Amino acid sequence: MIPQQARANSPLSVASIVASMTAVALGNGVMSAYVPFVLTRSDSPSWAAGAAITAVAFGGLVGCVVAGPLIRRVGHARLFAASMALVILGALLIAIGVNPILWIIGRLLYGMAGNTNFIIAQSWLNHAASNEWRGKAMSFFYMAYVVGLGVGAFAFGRLPAEGNLAPLVTIFFTALAILPISLTRLPTPPAPATVSVDIKMAWRNSPVGFIGVLAAGGLSMMVQGFTPIYAAGHQVSQAEVALLMFVMQLGMLFIQYPLGALSDRMDRRLVLLFTCGLIAVMAVVALFVSFAQLLLLMIVFAIWAGAVETVYAIANAHANDRTKPEDFVPLASTMLVAWSASATLVPLFVTLVTPVFGPKTFIYAAMAVAAAYGAFILMRLKGREAVPPDEREAFEMLSAQVPNATVITEPDDGRSDRAR
Fold this sequence. Notes:
This protein has about 425 residues and is mainly alpha-helical. The chain has 15 helices and no strands. Helix 2 packs antiparallel against helix 5, helix 4 runs antiparallel to helix 7 and helix 6 runs antiparallel to helix 10.
């Protein structure tokens, strides 16, 4: 049952949570553009920029695993402040000066804190929102976060790359983020469910959904992480790199929503198959469009990034369609760990082989992952019927750049009734 105090909350009551996480996103957007741009343009080893991407993903994996136990130990508000302190420490290591090892450690700290913060925020929002407007609140929450990432990246284009102003701006936004959620009058939610991994259950219920989340984790980290490295390596200006990353975030809004709505009306696997084809086609186009045609390249990368985000959201929805309510929590936990593991291992592989195959390696890798997933969907289409529309879960906008911990953030009591 939902406490009466939670029932009385209005949509405006969760504004503090959205405001805090949007400030976090602004700081992360600045840093996500700054770190690869500077490492690529400096005398740092060629592997450093890719290693920083892998460090964020690996830190995120750690954060997904330890967030629940830590929340149980100290509570949501204290852990949010502690994780924000980790973000500030990570940015401080970067502000000291260009040092690849320190910068990689700094990004590792951010990854740990970033996913922890997201789980805290989702838990709090789920607890505060009523059934009538929870879905809309979560969609707005994701959109605000993704737009915040884009605006932060765009702001980097207006900051000097030399010196430490960019990480100081990140520290400013992170400190700002502590205030709204620390001063909120919303009641502290119960501790989230424990992360319990059940790969056999996830595979049995929805092979297409499980493999889709694996594919999306690696695809997102490659496309979002290696694009600024690729652009900086082609001597694209700082302002243009920042604009490219901003446009890529907008791609999610204009690509994911219509495809997600379409997946509510037809077999989601067909929409996923089309999306895989779109990813592969955009990857081919990206190989041949030069940075001299920057406007066209931005459109291509926006569609490309939006399609990657779409795979993640529809694969999650497809997995939920085929899962019993009592299995939502272990399914979400398994998907969370699968996403984090893929987001760590795929960028690591790309980082290792890029010196051999060149800066376009991530484009070829994304093409290969999309093609392999598309082939897997084709195989599964022949063996299983689609879920009837009236038995499907409603599609929700999700971002492959952040963990979908919505279900595991439900408390143990009554979580199946409120699970998505």
